[in-house]
Amino acid sequence: MDLDAVIWLEKWLKSYTGTLVLISHDRDFLDPIIDKILHIEQQTLNEYTGNYSSFERQRATKLSQQQSMYQHQQEKVAHLQSYIDRFRAQATKAKQAQSRIKMLERMELIAPAHVDNPFHFSFRTPESLPDPLLRMDKVSAGYGENTVLQSIKLNLVPGSRIGLLGRNGAGKSTLIKLLAGTLEPQSGEIALSKGIKLGYFAQHQLEFLRADESPLQHMSRLAPKESEQQLRDYLGGYGFQGDQVTDPTARFSGGEKARLVLALIIWQRPNLLLLDEPTNHLDLDMRQALTEALIDFEGALVVVSHDRHLLRSTTDDLYLVHDGKVEQFDGDLEDYQQWLVDSQRQQSQQDNPAKELSGNSAQQRKDQKRRDAEFRTQTQPLRKQIMTLEKQMDKLSTELAAIEAQLADSALYDIARKADLTQCLLQQTQVKSKLEETEMQWLDVQEQLEILTKEFSDADI
Fold first, then answer.
1. pTM of the model
2. What's the whole-number average pLDDT of the chain?
3. What are the residues whose beta carbons fall under 8 Å from the beta carbon of 54, sequence distance 6 or more?
4. Which of 86, 48, 40 is nearest to 439 (CA)?
5. Which domain holds residue 57?
6. 284 and 200: one domain?
7. Could you tell me if 95 and 140 lie in one domain?
8. Which terminus of the chain is less hemmed in, N or C, by CB atoms within 10 Å?
């Protein structure tokens, strides 16, 4: 699914009134839809109340109780804090840049929740960082006689971090192919610096892997002077452990192939990174590891992705590919979502001018505004109550995690600490009971909001 389709599906599922069991690797897609997480860890099913962001906070608290992980957690937090300080000092006032600061600060808070991530890698320092890396001047491109994009002007320098937006088929992948040199321009000039080194990820590259060769063989061809142990250690950061290092890639899933392609790209120390839907086959842990690695990347980045968390965390500027043009988008991803709605409405008006003329009279627009205002007024108390209850559930879940961490300490079961154990068990029972009560209140208010929303929706039909 592209970003437009994900946004549409999210909107539809939010209004769905039935029971929903959802598996997804897209955290921003999960957040507004779900109210409970079932986390499978060490063959155990753990339940967390709230959405994915709430789960991360609760799990961060739970893991912070485990002293063996404390030092590693602090290192990750300190690293992110240093990056935030550097970025804030040089960031523009652009809306997307400010959105990225907020996302980095949030990542710092939930870093402990990912301390046991099985994937751990970083981009190697590029051998050179020429400035500019690439320049496009009045470039047009397409296929055969069909022109898809025209008059493109783009200047990529070290530190450029661009996310491409646009509807499916608008030309985002065409622009990436132009930058990668796999598509020749129809007109205009593309100037590449002498020291440029491209790292290009696209879905079709997964098929270029040699099916009869293992990850170790792929790496050995790329780095023949490195020892086998060094290559094994490197591949371990991408989740290839033990016998899997020598397994032929013919047996690999799409996610495993994507991880191997990323490992091969990163090894080559690119200074210009072009990523076309890099997260398609990746699970949440690998997406988190890739996001953290991209934060530290020193070269230029151009990315197409339906993963809004990755776009918010790693890009400073958004460019819109639309109607044959590539232009900087003045806004963030929330503004882009509104742009999609507005452009769809505009297209509908062009396709059905007579219908729109009769349906958009001044009186009807006035009535619609009145209904919208009435809806906001009537639902505001419910929405406020939901937010309050969610905060209470977060707090109670955190308290419960801390109590259960104490109960996991074998020293608490010493005969001399019987009173402490009794008190701890009593607290666990009380907090669990309060959490269940709050959850029932939350479900009740959610149901009231859904009924009211449906009533207004039916009235508009």
1. 0.60
2. 82
3. 37, 48, 390, 393, 394, 397
4. 48
5. 3-114
6. yes
7. no
8. C
CA distance 144 to 174: 13
Q: Tokens 């063996």 belong to which residue?
A: 68
| Same-domain pairing of 50 and 187 | no
Mean pLDDT, residues 229-245 taken together: 91
Stretch among 26-35, 347-356, 438-447 having the lowest mean pLDDT: 347-356
Mean of pLDDT values over 44-65: 78
pLDDT given for residue 190 in this prediction: 92
Residue 66 lies in a domain: yes
Q: How far apart are CA 46 and CA 58, in angstroms?
A: 12
Residue 363 within any structural domain of the chain: no
Give the sheet arrangement for strand 134-143, strand by strand. 146-156, 134-143, 187-192
Query: What are the beta bridge partners of residue 40?
Result: 45
CB atoms within 10 A of CB 179: 23
Distance from C-alpha of 3 to C-alpha of 337, rounded to nearest angstrom: 10
Beta bridge partners of 190: 136
How many folded domains does the chain comprise? 3
Please indicate, yes or no, if residue 125 is contained in any of the structural domains: no
How many alpha carbons lie under 13 Å from residue 129 in its C-beta half-sphere? 12
Q: For residues 263 and 282, what is the distance between their CA atoms, to the nearest angstrom?
A: 13
pLDDT of residue 269: 94
Show which of 85, 114, 143 is a domain's final residue: 114
- Cβ-contact 431, 396 below 8 angstroms: yes
Q: State the number of CA atoms in the 13 A half-sphere of 178 facing the CB.
A: 31
Where among 290, 324, 343 does a domain terminate?
343
Bridge pairing between strands 325-328 and 198-201: unpaired
